[in-house]
Amino acid sequence: MSILTDRIRAANAAGRKAVIPYLPAGFPDRERFWDELTALDAAGADIIEIGVPFSDPVADGPVVEQASLECLEKGACLSWILTELARRKGDFKAGLVLMGYYNPFLQYGLERLGRDCAAAGVSGLIIPDLPLEEAQPATAALTGTGVDVICLVGLNTPVERLKLYAEKARGFVYFVSVLGTTGVRESLPEEVLAKLDEVRPLFNVPLALGFGIARPEQVSPFGDRIDAVVIGSALIKHIREGKGAGSFMEDWRPAGK
Amino acid sequence: MQKGYFGKFGGMFVPELLMPPLLEIEEAMNTIVPSEAFQAEFHSILEDYVGRPSALYRCPNLSKKLGFDLWLKREDLNHTGAHKINNAIGQGLLCRHMGKSVLLAETGAGMHGVATATAAAMLNLECVVYMGATDVVRQSHNVRRMNLLGATVVPIDSGTQTLKDAINAALRRWIADQRTTHYCFGTAAGPHPFPTLVREFQSVISREAKAQMLKKAGRLPDYVVACVGGGSNAIGAFNEFIPHEEVKLIGVEAAGTGEPGCHHSAPLNLGTAGVLHGAMSMLLQTPEGQIEPSHSIAPGLDYPGVGPEHAGLQDCGRAHYGTINDTQAYNAFHTLCRSEGIIPALESSHAVAWVLENAASIPKGSQVLVCLSGRGDKDLGIIEEYEKNKKI
Ligand SMILES: Cc1ncc(COP(=O)(O)O)c(C=O)c1O
Question: Considering only CB atoms, which chain B residues are within 8 Å of A110?
């Protein structure tokens, strides 16, 4: 079974939702990024999503976009991320996932990407601009490497498409909670609840809810409909306020839980 | 062939959240657009409002000098002054047929923004235009036009603050507002079905030009030449001639200053294959796949990507793509002004310049058709600035 599925199921077995923080590679700078990553891991992140910066991130709101552009200026690129991760292989308890747009992965070379991700201990890729129709070359190149392509679905994904995604889903399914881009929202749309009831039974893999989430109260209404939570922009803001990633995790994983 | 592909180029590289609205447009393109009712409405607006068919004009003075017949397809004479209106009217009508009330557009030079604002006013739709903050300053005259037409212009401060960032921002807005909003993409690029939809509406250029050439010259042209930004006027000018193998199709990209190491806007000539704004096409990018900034004296050509059908036409050898630099375009601008009394857009000046620069290799007696995609009134500020900097 996928390491990612494993991590989420283990958290659920312990009676809690898996916590998946997102941090752009190279944020807040190239050295401190590794300290924050280590802190997230030590504070009990189940999976960590590492953002691969891209010049034109269409699925992201201003907070992630800004952070991503800063990281690019500081020289964070895919080969740097994979080389540094390979050096630290085995250091992290958390499962590792790269979240990035298709073009940098494509230019890196999909076969090479599969090999180097495996060597770096990366278990999955989230590629927000790679829908069903275009995913075949990536999934073909990654077959047998132990690296899963994680699918994203949302409030407007019709049931026929959900079924097609469900057939191929590996690791977990990422449910986008808003019809919009990344970025903290005060509250999540009411339709999420009903849509989760439709989506959940179709998938054999666990379901992670992401986009717009800042605080645990926002996700408590979803109960067992979700297995994991992804938090991105809120963590970036927290770090920008001069606070560490470790203290951010306290809200999500109170000591002893 | 896979849906929405031109050879290995094209596709739908967008977030899943944009797939339903794109598939909705695809469905409308295949069912509503071919219907008699839609076609009748579209063509009556083109005739009575846009002023079509646009003239085909043989340049008497330049033809004499060059030794071959130079024909201009006068898209500059359209209402709002460029070919962009053909597409804006088509998509505006489609928006209404799909039951949506807002037209969303990106714009670089402002010509597509003005065309969309015009179509929206005429069709009783709301209009929101995203424009890079740099372009808002460079093309302030067009911002005022859009405001007069009732559109909301949103300046975009992120990234390079130009067209590519306006497209990113418009795509984001569309994710959120897809239920009420149609994204009126301005060129034959972006995810499927936009390259095909925009070609459909711009092909009126070559349908008319073909009939006009047969009538006036008695035969098809030997060359069809058009500038390529995203590629909409070029694909519109090429489309009807593609099956006629004897007609040479020439797209003209902007080489910028032409100096080594300087930014340009010539992805077909100098770029590599990659994915931007929803399509696999040729791109200006670093080896790591980050998009590089572009440059051209013509704001409408200043884009690091290009429509996937042009990448496909280049790949299979059916069309050829040349480059023209800022100075050559500037010279052609003046040549057309003085020789024929026509002030062309700087974008279109690239197409004219290709003919002037390559005149020696064009056989005497040839019929050369140039798509004059727009008029140059919008560019007078740029020309003035250019002359000041070059001390002309
Ligand atoms: C007059 C004119 N010609 C050409 C272009 C380039 O666009 P395309 O390549 O889509 O025709 C523009 C874009 O703004 C324009 O305004």
Answer: none
